[in-house]
Write a structure and sequence with these properties.
Blueprint lengths: L1 H43 L11 H18 L1 H5 L3 H13 L1
Helix pairs in contact: 1-2
């Protein structure tokens, strides 16, 4: 019974991780599409492309995307790969 419960916990943890990864990939795709549109539009309208004001959206949104990526792919680096599982067990043991 414990093995079945452990498998369920791992399955749902993996499912949650895949969902986070999918969210990041969608975020990255939207970032590329929107910023490509903005840059192409600025070029077409004859804006000076050496002006930093054309890139603020790209820069700040890029920083947000970087933080999002770090939260998805480096969370194990900061807390350890089994941190969530240990916390779940700790909380479940306290409730007994």
């Amino acid at each position: 019974m414990e093995t079945q419960n452990e498998n369920n916990i791992r399955y749902f943890a993996a499912k949650r991780r895949v969902k986070k990864m999918k969210g990041f990939y969608i975020h990255a795709l939207v970032y590329v599409l929107v910023n490509t549109f903005i840059i192409v539009n600025n070029i077409r309208d004859g804006h000076d492309m050496t002006d930093i004001n054309n890139y603020w959206t790209l820069i700040f949104w890029g920083l947000g995307l970087l933080v999002h990526g770090m939260s998805v792919f480096m969370s194990d680096f900061i807390l350890g790969h089994d941190w969530e599982e240990r916390k779940i067990r700790e909380i479940m043991n306290r409730k007994r």
